[in-house]
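Sequence design from tokenized structure. All designs in this work follow the same two-part layout: the structure record, then the generated sequence. An example of the structure record is given first.
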């Protein structure tokens, strides 16, 4: 690669080397503090004012708000600092070192998405001798891969504030204008166990779950008929009944049964409304049967995302990249930045198909187009 990218490669190697795995399994979950400290040091060296924001309630997870310039408006360039867990035995290279091979850069998080931050550094370096009329904010968040608690904490604090925001998730530098929301819930039915030879001795939770599943399938069909958005390959909401567990023995009446499911929501749908509708339908089945039910979110969910109508940022990104805005199937922190009032899109280097995979990589062909587009966005937004 050109000599001018030697510092970029050094930054990429260092940030890949700093493990920051995020997991619901506390045994392998890690703090992201080392990554945040590294980024804060590097951006402070460039002249940014840096602030670490703890993520409640986890005292080991942090966000970074790095600001260059003062005033209102401006641009946020955002990304998450955590990665998914990995199985090192499936990697052909060291996942915690940057490996250059076949015009690709390999390493855990290189695409999803710690590699975005060194590209920001390269994009802004030539601009820092010029007075910024509006601020540039680099936002690095925690726990996107699990709870999105980093972005949620910032939304609750009402920070940061800017006119627009770009989240550098791997989209092949195609601007993303929409993605579906995600909710995952469990339904637990409680009946009464007893000897199977006399059904009157118990109240079978598995029998009741059969009726609940039938109602959920009917509701799924109603959602498909009620909502449609042609931006998506699958234009309607989906519901997947993914896991079911109940009972403990063939000769005992099933006392408890749990179903886990997810719903992918199209823009305009709200998780609270969907949960309320499902809960009402279940109660109409379980109450007459004397079955108790509890519906619990598996995680708090991600709202659907849709760039605002006539988005100036989207039009600019389309012009700079030559790509029309697209929709994607994966969730992002976009809705939480939108809650802060920012014109938001998703656009970054790499391909989502390489994320969460052994031998995660970013094509070196992505580097220069990304740096060029980010630099021009900063010029148009801040200078």
């Amino acid at each position: 690669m050109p000599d001018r990218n030697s510092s970029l490669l050094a930054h990429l190697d260092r940030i890949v080397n700093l493990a920051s795995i995020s997991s619901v399994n506390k045994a392998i979950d890690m703090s992201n503090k080392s990554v945040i400290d590294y980024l804060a040091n590097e951006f402070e060296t460039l002249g940014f004012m840096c602030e670490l924001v703890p993520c409640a309630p986890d005292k080991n997870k942090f966000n970074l708000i790095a600001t260059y310039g003062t005033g209102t408006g401006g641009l946020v360039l955002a990304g998450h600092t955590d990665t998914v867990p990995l199985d090192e035995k499936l990697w052909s290279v060291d996942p915690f070192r940057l490996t250059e091979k076949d015009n690709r850069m390999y390493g855990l998080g290189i695409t999803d998405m710690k590699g975005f931050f060194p590209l920001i550094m390269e994009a802004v370096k030539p601009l820092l001798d010029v007075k910024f009329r509006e601020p540039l904010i680099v936002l690095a968040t925690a726990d996107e891969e699990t709870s999105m608690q980093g972005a949620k904490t910032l939304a609750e604090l009402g920070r940061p504030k800017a006119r627009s925001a770009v989240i550098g998730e791997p989209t092949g530098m195609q601007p993303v204008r929409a993605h579906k929301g995600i909710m995952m819930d469990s339904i637990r039915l409680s009946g009464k166990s007893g000897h199977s030879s006399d059904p009157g001795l118990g109240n079978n939770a598995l029998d009741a779950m059969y009726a609940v599943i039938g109602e959920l399938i009917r509701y799924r069909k109603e959602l498909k008929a009620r909502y449609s958005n042609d931006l998506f390959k699958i234009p309607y909401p989906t519901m997947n009944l993914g896991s079911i567990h109940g009972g403990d023995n063939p000769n005992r009446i099933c006392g408890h049964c749990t179903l886990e499911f997810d719903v992918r929501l199209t823009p305009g749908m709200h998780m609270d409304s969907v949960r309320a509708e499902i809960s009402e339908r279940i109660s109409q089945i379980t109450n007459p049967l004397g079955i108790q039910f509890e519906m619990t979110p598996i995680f708090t969910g991600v709202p659907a995302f849709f760039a605002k109508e006539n988005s100036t940022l989207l039009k600019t990104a389309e012009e700079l990249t030559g790509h029309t805005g697209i929709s994607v199937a994966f969730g992002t922190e976009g809705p939480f930045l939108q809650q802060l009032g920012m014109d938001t899109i998703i656009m970054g280097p790499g391909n989502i198909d390489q994320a969460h995979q052994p031998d995660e990589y970013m094509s070196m062909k992505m580097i220069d187009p990304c740096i060029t587009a980010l630099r021009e966005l900063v010029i148009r937004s801040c200078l």
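The mean pLDDT is 95. We note this feature because it recurs in several other targets discussed in the main text.
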